[in-house]
């Protein structure tokens, strides 16, 4: 299988994150992608290549251009006021209630204020190399997608940082640019056809849902921990079905704690029926392997065999398929879990018509 990966991902290397009211080592770090690459490089069935470089227009097709410009300069601007800061995080978030009854917010005057206008939570520091790493993840996603558009049965993009939590105009949840959304929009507009994003990460892809919620050319289907207990808490409920032209093109499948291989595969089979009914010409998989039974920040019970089974089920769609990396935080197991999914998906994928 064609695998796209780049060492540029290592530029985003935070020292810590603030989660559950504590300062801790980051769960999302360069070693995750290193572990995946090492496993795939040792298997002759995978051909690893560098991505092409893409311009910002592909990102701005789904993201606010202001977000792109902000992330490009945020770390450097912060150093002017706070020299020597390694991890840059907001002090204040621009919540509407702060100005309730007093008018609109004034335009941001300092970087400290800007950070809280573009970021929605505390686990996603900006470091000196974050912007280039985030751009490289988009390059990976688009290069993998382009390979499939040109005729490959399937391709895998080892995206890092991940992307599915980033909505149109914000970053957070370890995500800066929404790699899967950029890829899906590129595929839909290039092919002039419907595309489905299938998200199998433990956490609901609130950003991907928001970007496509009113569109009927890109379907979003997500299996995830029930947001009644799981991050991002605010979205991912089963009554969120899309609006306007996008009504019915959004499907959320919240899962109970402890869902095992059989339970997950049964839920996935039902989701694939909805995808088949939508009739896409290409599928983008947001692959999170944080549904693993030993993952430190999830509560599902999927095994390596379960990931292989997921890939085999997706292969039964017999559609050109792009697989893009999202989460997965058991570094010892992440590489083989990704490999199992990819080996499952390969046999049944048909070439693009």
Q: Which class of secondary structure composition applies to the elements? A: alpha/beta
Q: Name the strands of the widest sheet in spatial order.
A: 4-1-5-10-9-6-7-8
Q: Quote the distance from N terminus to C terminus.
A: 19 Å
Share in β-strands: 5-15%
Number of strands: 10
CATH class division? Alpha Beta
Could you give a short account of the major beta sheet?
8 strands, parallel
Q: Which stretches are low in confidence, meaning pLDDT under 50 for 5 or more residues running?
A: 348-353
Q: Give the helix proportion (percent range).
A: 25-40%
Number of helices, counting only DSSP H or I runs of 4 residues or more: 10
Looking at the structure, the CATH topology is Arginase, Chain A
* Rg on CA atoms, Å: 19 Å
Query: What is the CATH superfamily classification?
Result: Histone deacetylase domain
Rough outline = globular
At CATH's second level, what is the architecture? 3-Layer(aba) Sandwich
What integer is the average pLDDT?
96
